[in-house]
Amino acid sequence: xxxxxxxxxxxxxxxxxxxxxxxxxxxxxxxxxxxxxxxxxxxxxxxxxxxxxxxxxxxxxxxxxxxxxxxxxxxxxxxxxxxxxxxxxxxxxxxxxxxxxxxxxxxxxxxxxxxxxxxxxxxxxxxxxxxxxxxxxxxxxxxxxxxxxxxxxxxxxxxxxxxxxxxxxxxxxxxxxxxxxxxxxxxxxxxxxxxxxxxxxxxxxxxxxxxxxxxxxxxxxxxxxxxxxxxxxxxxxxxxxxxxxxxxxxxxxxxxxxxxxxxxxxxxxxxxxxxxxxxxxxxxxxxxxxxxxxxxxxxxxxxxxxxxxxxxxxxxxxxxxxxxxxxxxxxxxxxxxxx
Length: 339
Prior knowledge:
eleven-stranded mixed sheet; TIM Barrel; 11 helices; two-stranded antiparallel sheet; 32% helix; alpha/beta
């Protein structure tokens, strides 16, 4: 009996560490993405609700419609709300409920709208592909950090549910076509400028149906898909379905207003990428840049990858906010509609 049990555990370990190959199914993808993903049963250790009392002020700025993110004390839905879903071709899709509720608000993390301190939202992207990395982000980062998942990961529904229960807002990263020389492979379900609107819409519905309970989408890298004007399809669907969009190209908000701001979608723009150079000195420089932007503009959005050093330094950085007069905020607290 002992020998049988040991063998089973050994086999389980081999399977859990296997490479996962995802191929396009019925959409004419023609390419295959190799994903180094350690499978998970979804039984993830949780560290409570991840609640935090640190929040920030409502963003300001000319030419934009103020939004009303979840206020401190409002009830945040951790579970999936059926009224916010509709049947789609590849799974349930978000929608605005008959009584006008939108996913980005219902699933958003509550915050204190009266806090006037500069506000910084942190997004960690690239999650869902490796079990240990994903669990570390969910369990070890404060709940105020927003987590963005790859659509090519396994058990996304279980992972997203675990993230929400730990207090995190959940986002889905859009796989978008880029120039071949960029070295970035968006995978077999990427949105591609040369495809028809109908084909891209079908792929977008597959992407948006991969999990539920998310507040929005991260568009990065925008690349060829954005330059073609096809991004309007994404923004229109996001607005229609009540989810926010994050423009992942770093820079001032005005740089994205010509595309994102014209559609009326609720959105924000990444201010700083933290770990293009994942070295301690480079991270510290990115932190200082984000702080300066937040003091100058009232808000800043930073995005990073789940490198162990990034996760460790982000935790320490967030702990320094009170003495700096800055407040950490969920991503839903730094968005607004329009320019």
